[in-house]
Design a protein that fits this description.
With about 160 residues, the chain is an alpha+beta fold. It is globular and about 45 Å long. A hairpin with a 2-residue loop joins strand 3 and strand 4.
């Protein structure tokens, strides 16, 4: 039995157009991750880790562009997908969990409302059904569903990270 290639990136180059010229943020990255494998991407601050992740998700800022290379998810060419197709893949098959989860959560909104809103952005569910799913998800990551009513500043860093997952 062959192992399924989950993510394949070949010679990916991502550049940012800046007022003083091009910044080569990712310049020739290749990696292959098989289903069931764990892959750690490490490097110093500013070396392109987040840019690589945003390129895979096709969520680069307006001045960022994939110059060359290929990205496949489960054998599907992400570069060839329409925005609608990508919306169906993002969050369900691939996602980005930022290291600083405090910056990803809105400090003036309850965590449960934010999670339910994200669910509703990807599913045609009622607010109640989305909130119930948020409760289920909290249980899966070891958080008390009662904490959904709290604000991000009431969570520890680890709790915020698990809420983002």
């Amino acid at each position: 039995m062959s192992v399924v290639e989950l993510l394949q990136i070949d010679n990916l180059k991502v550049y940012y157009e800046m007022t003083n010229g091009l910044v080569r943020a990712v310049d020739g990255v290749s990696l292959h991750v098989k289903a069931g494998e764990y892959y750690g991407l490490v490097g110093e601050s500013g070396c392109g880790k987040t840019t690589l992740a945003r390129a895979v998700l096709r969520l680069l800022p307006p001045n960022g562009r994939i110059v060359s290379g290929h990205i496949w998810l489960k054998g599907r060419d992400l570069a060839a997908m329409s925005n609608r197709e990508l919306r169906g893949v993002r969050w369900t098959e691939m996602a980005l969990v930022p290291q600083s989860a405090m910056n990803a959560l809105d400090p003036v909104c309850r965590v449960g409302d934010q999670i339910a809103e994200a669910i509703r952005a990807h599913r045609r569910w009622s607010k109640q059904r989305a909130y119930e799913r948020a409760e289920e998800l909290f249980g899966l990551v070891g958080l008390d569903p009662k904490r959904l009513k709290d604000y991000p500043h009431q969570y520890s860093g680890g709790m915020r990270q698990r809420a983002m997952i």
